[in-house]
Amino acid sequence: MIQFLAGIFIKDHNNTNDANVRRQYGILCGAFGVVLNIILVIIKMTAAFMSGSVSILADAANNMSDAETSVVTIIGFKLASQKPDKKHPFGHGRIEYVAGLIVAFFIFGMAVELLRTSVKKIMHPEQTGFNLVIAGILIVAIFIKLYMFLYNMDLGKKLSSAVLVNNAKDSISDVVSTSVVLISSFISYKTGIILDGYAGTLVAIFIFYQAYEATRDTISPLLGEAPSDEMIGAIEKDVLTFDQILGVHDIIVHNYGPNKTMMSLHVEIDSDESLLEAHDLVDEIEQLLNEKYSCSSVIHVDPVNLHDEEVMMIKDRMKERIRQLGDDIKFHDFRIIHHKNEKIIAFDIVVPFDYKSSDDEVIKFAKDACKEMFPDYETEVTVDKAEIVR
């Protein structure tokens, strides 16, 4: 159904990388969610009045809350699609993450309310009515919510949308909640054993966990998370397809919302290449990256002296010594700087955040090693973090 509506209302609906298409999908999903949740409120209220079940009534109230989260989805996509301005030159894409966080808080609220209702039912149990009409209404509600879970999760992954993924988690929580209400009502009807409150408590715990996951997964991109190893590997592979590139490092990727990425990296080029040749090469690589990853990229050039035997000898010996720090330690951007009457060996060492030694200890180790092997040289060492620059 959602794809059918997308074909009618969204031009070029298969191009999900387009910002306008993303926005329209978000608004469509939100509007469709409002309609379906209002339908659920009506049919569950009917079932609640027929059965006298407080659990079903609470379930209906939860669906009204879900309709509100669908409105949040619409507002979130609309605000996130605003054009960049002077105060926000990288756009407003992260508003979508904020909307996802609001949805996560709604899920928390649902869990709290369900737990409160369930505890009351345990303390004051009461028999409720049950018949085939009530069962049919609840089964229909379960299938509607299951469908909402499927389309929200599918589009959430396709669009890399935290708010739609959180809507999906909210929907699957409702599926579990309504299923438990249905099963416990049926058991109570058949056996006289009232399980409503106990079952509701278990569901509340499940929904708390869903809310925790939704909050965690939404806060992470808001704080700024590292790119995946797969993405870094793909970038390196693309850059190294250019024959003049000897190496690539210090890859940094900033995310300012879905489809809004800034990327910077260093490439190593033979120092004999002219400045003009290096500039043209870097322009070509930037264009490739911008098109493939829908980003704005900036590349810094590190010239590498391949023809000075002394430089190569010093580099190889320092590289061998740095390996003593561990297999997960990287070494790059090596150069020898001639400044006035000084000769300076400069390089970067990349260590993970959880490395056993401090940055100062790593720098001291490198400087001591350099002084021992090459006493006529000064040393400049920069420590980078592997999870920030790759």
TrEMBL record:
<keyword id="KW-0813">Transport</keyword>
<feature type="domain" description="Cation efflux protein transmembrane">
    <location>
        <begin position="33"/>
        <end position="223"/>
    </location>
</feature>
<dbReference type="InterPro" id="IPR036837">
    <property type="entry name" value="Cation_efflux_CTD_sf"/>
</dbReference>
<dbReference type="Pfam" id="PF16916">
    <property type="entry name" value="ZT_dimer"/>
</dbReference>
<feature type="transmembrane region" description="Helical">
    <location>
        <begin position="95"/>
        <end position="112"/>
    </location>
</feature>
<feature type="transmembrane region" description="Helical">
    <location>
        <begin position="25"/>
        <end position="43"/>
    </location>
</feature>
<dbReference type="InterPro" id="IPR027469">
    <property type="entry name" value="Cation_efflux_TMD_sf"/>
</dbReference>
<dbReference type="GO" id="GO:0008324">
    <property type="term" value="F:monoatomic cation transmembrane transporter activity"/>
</dbReference>
<dbReference type="InterPro" id="IPR002524">
    <property type="entry name" value="Cation_efflux"/>
</dbReference>
<feature type="transmembrane region" description="Helical">
    <location>
        <begin position="193"/>
        <end position="212"/>
    </location>
</feature>
<protein>
    <submittedName>
        <fullName>Cation diffusion facilitator family transporter</fullName>
    </submittedName>
</protein>
<comment type="similarity">
    <text>Belongs to the cation diffusion facilitator (CDF) transporter (TC 2.A.4) family.</text>
</comment>
<keyword id="KW-0472">Membrane</keyword>
<dbReference type="GO" id="GO:0016020">
    <property type="term" value="C:membrane"/>
</dbReference>
<feature type="domain" description="Cation efflux protein cytoplasmic">
    <location>
        <begin position="227"/>
        <end position="303"/>
    </location>
</feature>
<dbReference type="Pfam" id="PF01545">
    <property type="entry name" value="Cation_efflux"/>
</dbReference>
<dbReference type="InterPro" id="IPR050291">
    <property type="entry name" value="CDF_Transporter"/>
</dbReference>
<keyword id="KW-1133">Transmembrane helix</keyword>
<keyword id="KW-0812">Transmembrane</keyword>
<feature type="transmembrane region" description="Helical">
    <location>
        <begin position="132"/>
        <end position="151"/>
    </location>
</feature>
<dbReference type="InterPro" id="IPR058533">
    <property type="entry name" value="Cation_efflux_TM"/>
</dbReference>
<dbReference type="InterPro" id="IPR027470">
    <property type="entry name" value="Cation_efflux_CTD"/>
</dbReference>
